[in-house]
Amino acid sequence: MKKIVLIVLLTLLGGGLSAQTNSRKAARQVEKARRAAMDSVLHLGAVQALESGAFVVEVDRLIFKRGRTASVSSNTNFVSRDGDEAFVQIAFNTVLAGPNGVGGITVRGNVSDVTVRTDKKGYLYYGMNVQGIGISARVDIMLIPGADRASVTVDPNYSSNRITMEGRVLPAVDSRVFKGRFH
Fold first, then answer.
1. Helix boundaries (H) for 119-177
2. What does each C-alpha distance from 62 to 18, 118, 146 come to in angstroms?
3. How many CB atoms lie within 10 A of CB 39?
């Protein structure tokens, strides 16, 4: 009798654990599907912003020439384009104000030679030349498929001080960056 009660009790407990495990799996699958749908919507917004020429890449990480990285604030580090004008701002979290007043540099230039293409894997490549008083560079943006994350490479024409940045691509109207004094 004790064996039968023990077997029934173990069977009931096992079924309860199985149901609990199934509900956890279902909850994880729902959350994963929700995140994928949100990423897809953000990706479409990023693609439209790049194609319209009114975007901001809010940078949260800088990668220097020899692979060193630095985490930075996305409100003061960005690459933007609005029509024929582009800005590149890099500001480090330091006590010093820097030439732009926010701890780094801000340069403005005119945009030319814009190229947009998508490869077989879904990566969108956006390139533009930026020419101004403080900048003469090629700016290349690689948007990751299914997300709003991008890698930006600023390659100056007259030096080898290339810098790579990573961040989110947003439409210009949705961005909340702080633009410092520019040259």
1. none
2. 46, 24, 22
3. 16
Tens-place pLDDT, residues 46-99: 999 999 989 999 999 988 878 888 888 888 889 999 989 998 888 876 555 566
Q: Which amino acid is at 35?
A: R
Q: Strand 85-91 vs strand 78-82: parallel, antiparallel, or unpaired? A: antiparallel
The residues that bridge with 33 in the sheet, in sequence order, are: none
Residue 174 identity? D
* Strand residues in the chain grouped as ranges (E): 54-63, 69-71, 78-82, 85-91, 104-118, 124-131, 136-143, 149-156, 163-171
Instruction: Assign 25 a pLDDT band (cuts: 50, 70, 90).
Output: confident
b/e 133-143 (16+ beta carbons within 10 angstroms → b): eebebebbbbb
> By the 8 A CB rule, do 175 and 70 touch?
no
Q: What are the residues facing 59 on neighbouring strands? A: 167
Question: What is this structure's pTM?
Answer: 0.77
User: Residue 70 and residue 55: Cα distance in Å, rounded?
Assistant: 23
Q: What is the pLDDT of residues 141-156, one digit of tens each?
A: 999 998 889 999 998 8
* The two three-digit tokens of residue 73, written as one number: 């604030």
